[in-house]
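Inputs:
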Amino acid sequence: MKALRPAGDVGQLPTVTFGHRSLMWWGTLGFMVIEGWTTALLVAAYFYVRQNYQAWPPLRTPYPSLLIPTVNLALMLVSLIPARIVDGKAKKLDGPAVKRWMIIMSVTAVPILVLRWWELWAINTRWDTTAYGSAAWTIVGFHTSLLLLDIVDTLGLTLFFHIRRMPVKAFSDTADNSFYWYFTVGIWIPIYLIVYVGPRFF
Amino acid sequence: MTDVRGHGGRVLPANTALAQESLDREGQQLEVVWSDKPGFWGWLTTADHKKIAKRYLVTTFLMFIAGGIEAALMRMQLARPENGLIGPDKYNQLFTVHGTTMMFLFAVPVMNAMGIYFVPLMLGTRDVAFPRLNAFGYWTFLVAVVFMYVSLFANTGPDVGWFAYVPLSGPQYSPGHRVDVWAQVVTFTEISALVAAVNIIVTTFKMRAPGMSLNRIPIFVWAQLVVAFMIIFAMPAVATASTLMLATDRAVSMHWFNPAEGGDALLWQHMFWFFGHPEVYIIFLPALGFITPIIETFCRRPVFGYTAIVMANITTAFFAFGLWVHHMFATPIPELGQSLFTAASMLIAIPTGIQIFCWLVTMWASRPRLRVPMLFVLGFIFTFVNGGITGVMLASVAFDKQAHDTFFVVAHLHYVLLGGGVMPLFGAFYFWYPKITGRMLSETLGKWHFWLFVIGVNVTFFPMHKLGLDGMPRRVYTYLAPTGWGPLNLVATIGAFTIAVGVLVFVINAIMSWRGGEEAGPNPWESSGLEWATASPPPPYNFVHVPVVESRHPLWDTSIDLPVVTGFRKDRREVLITTTFDALPDSRHEHPTGSIWPVYLAGCMAVVFIGSIFSPYFVLGGLGLSLIGLAGWGWQGSKPAGHERVATPALPEGA
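Outputs:
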C-alpha cells in the first residue's frame, strides 16, 4: 500500500446540514420519484382501460361526488401552511416553535386521513364492479398509503419532540418531513382532477 | 501539493504534522467505533455494506445453482422424445420457477450486490448512504427466496411462466395460490431492488472521495448509477402490475385484466414489458461495468473512450425504455408502433457496439495478460455478440412472428444473459474475490471453469436456434419422435451438463480458496481503483483515512503517496459528504450503527404481503406491527448526540 499524506482537515466542516446538503433529503427525494412514477403509471393504466368504454364512467355508474373530495383538497392545501412553518422553524433550530407547530400540523393532517375513508366511497362505485371502479380505487388507495406513511412520520416526530431531548439533526429530519408532505399534497391535485373531476369531461 | 477545497471553495488546511504512526493509530480507534456487536446479535443486526453484500452474493449464487438444477431437470426431460421423467404440471412449475429465480432472485440482486459491496469502496467512502435500509433490503429479499422455495416444495410453485401473462394467471384460469406466490415474490424483490437503487444513487451523488468529480467516477460506478436510475423507473411498473393489479384482481375481484368488465389483458403485457425489457439492461449494464476495470488492469492501460462509454451507458438506458413492445409483436398493435419499436430495437445495438469497440481498441495496442478474468471478458465478447445479432434479427417483425414462442427465442435470451451477464460476472468474481476474501482463486481451476462454461453454453444454446427455426415451441414438456428434434435436444442436454460441471469446478475453487488460496495482499492485480487502496478484506470502516482523488486512476497516477483527509471524530461513526458535481468536502455526517429494526420490518412486510394472499386482516395486522418497527427505528435514530456543528440556510454557519 502507498504511504498516506494528509492533504486536508475536515474537522471544521458542519455535521448537520439541511436540504440538498443532507443525505436524508436525497433519500426522501428518491422515494418521492418512485412513488410519483408509480402514480403516473397508474394514471396511464386508468386511461388505457378508458379506451374500452364508450362512456366514462360506464353506463349506470354515477359520477364521483365532489363535495367531500373538494373539502379534503381544501384541507390539504391549508395543511401546507403549518408544514411550511415547521419547515422554516426547523431550519432556524427553534425548538419550542417546532414543537408547537408540529402539533398543529398533526391536528390538520389527521382529519385528512379520516375524510379519506368517505372520499374513497365518493368514487360512487365499488372496486369490484367494473375496471373503471378498479382503476379509481387503486389510484386513490395508493395515494392513501403515502398519506398514511407521512402522517405516521409526522405523529411520531411530534411525539418524540415532546418526550425526549431531540438531537440537532432531528430538525433536519423534520424539515424533510415537511418536504415529503408538500409532495403528498402536490401529487393529490392531479389525482383529484383526474379521478373526481375528470369523468365529467372525458 | 494538493489543496483540498470545501463547499464554497475555501481551502481546508492540511494537518501535515500528523506522523505515519499517528495515522496508523487512528485505524485502531476506528475499529472500536465501526465494529459490529459480537456474536449472533451482531450478525443479525449488522448494517455493514460489505457483510450485507456478501449475504446477497451467497444467497443469489445459491439461487443460481437452484435455477441451474431446475434447468438441468428440464434438459433431462427434453433429452429424448416422449420422455416420461417429468409430467406437464411439474414441468410448468419448473420453467416458471427457473425463469423467476434467474431473473428476480439471481441476476438483478447479484448485480446490486456487486454494487453494494464495491461502490462505496470505489468511491473512497466508508459505507452506503442508508445502511439500515440496505439491511432491510436484504432481509426482504431473503423472504422472497424462502417463500418461493417453500412454495415449490409444497407443490404451490408458480406455473404460468416467468412473465405470468393474463388471462392465464388471472383468477379464472389459475385458481389456487400458485400465481399469488409469484406475485408476492416479485413484490419483495422489487422492494429490495428499489432500496438498493436509492442507496447507490445517494452514495454516488453525495459520498464520493474529495476530488472525484463526475468525470472521474469509475466506469463500474457509472454503470451502477445508470442502472439504479433504470431500477427506479422500471421496477414500479412490475410492482404496480403484480401487487396493485394482478394480486388485487385475484384477491378482491378487481377487473384490471377482465375484458368482461372493461379490463384489458394487453395492459398486463404493457406493464410487464415496460419493466421487463429494461430489466435485461439492468442485468447487462452492470456486467459491462465489470469489464472496463478488468480490461484496463490486464492491458495495463486506461480504457479508450471513457466519455463515449459513459454516454453509451446513459443512451442505452434511455433506449431500453423504448423497446418493450418488441416483446408484443404477436399482438394486434398498430403498424406504425411496430415500425417504431423495430427501429428502436435496432438502434440500441449502436451504444452497445460503441462500448465493444472501445474495449477492442484498448486491447488492440496492448499485450493483454490472459488471466481468468480476462478470459471471461473474451468469452463475453464472443458469446454476447452472437446473442446481440439474433436480437437484431428478432427486432424485425416479419422474422419475429415466425420465431415467436419458439426455441429460437430461448437461444437468443440465453446467449444474451449468459454471455452478457453471467460471463462478465464470473470474470468479476475472479477479479474481486481477492478483495472480498484476501485470497486468490486458483488459476488452473479457473481455466477449467472457463472452458467448460463457454463450451457448455454454446453447445447447449446454439442448437436451440435450429430447433426454433424447425418449429419447436418453448415451454412444452415433450415432443414426438417424427418431429426430428431429438438429436439436437440431446446435444443441448449434454451442453447443459457441461455447464453444470463448469459451475461445480467454480464452487470447489471458491470453497477451497476461501481458506487455502494464495494470500492476495491489498492490490494483487496492480489495478488502479480506490478499492485496491485498502486491505483485503477491507476493515469495517473501509479506509483508515478518506482518500483524495486527483485523476481517474488514483493508484496509477499518484506516484509516491496517497493524499488523504483527516479530522473525523473518533468517538462515533462519521462519513464525509461531498458536493454532487465536484465532490468538494461539504459536511461530516453521523452514520448509523447496526439495528434489529430492519430485520423486524422485513418480517412485517412478510406478514403484509404473504398474508394478503389469505386475508386482508393480515395486511392490517402487519401494518400495525410495522408501526412498532418504525417507532423503534426512529427512536434509535434520534438518540441525543454530542456537540454538533450546524449549517442551516436560515442561520449563519457555525451557529
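Remarks. The helical segments of chain A are 23-50, 67-91, 95-121, 131-163, 169-197. The longest strand of chain A covers residues 3-9.
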